Request: fold
Amino acid sequence: PCSKVFKILSCIDGPGSRPRQLRNPRGLAISTRGDLYVVDTGNRRIQIFALKGLPLRAIWEPLLVKFVDGEIDVKKAVPETPKDVPLPDCLEAELVFPDGTWSPFDIALSVDCWAYVSDYANHLIHVFDPQGRWCTALTGEAEEAPPLEKPTHIALDRKCQLHILQEGKDYATVLDKDGKFIGQVKTVEDVKGRFCPISIAVDADGNICIGDRTTRRVHAFCPTNEGSHYHKGAW
Reply:
């Protein structure tokens, strides 16, 4: 924030499959405890760093998903290292995972640090408790709705309802925190008032927009001709 430029995090060790390395990372989330969750999609895992100093706090290992008699079970997936694959000395061969291994795409965190992870490969949303233990997986299926199919991005609103995008679908599926189907969202108006505005942004003209969680309004501060004073508005 002080230098006002983007920087590469030196504590992340570039491409690869070792701890602190990444392959095709997708989702990011920051918890209320000050931890950074990185969805390391290419390595089929999630890495968790403390924001202060970026020490590696935990790795959620690849999960192998099994469907048995209508129930969902998971265990650790054991990948294989390809043999006889010619690569430059500076590169590692990508691991080969067994069929059924999850493919985490995105992650959403509740205020009490429950985690919801979209699994593109198995068409599920995995639920982890605040200690990182897998608890269950949500299919999204209901009498009035089909099961999820290739879920991608996921978000939680202020009521802890899950809003899930799916590849090729023109709507978002909404589930409650226990996986019960709530409905579908097709327009911006459908979610009006559901999310708490907590962001701040400044445009090239010096206009400042601040989200207010308490009033659920966005306040705009526009510079006056004097430059150091601002007019205030809200919507």
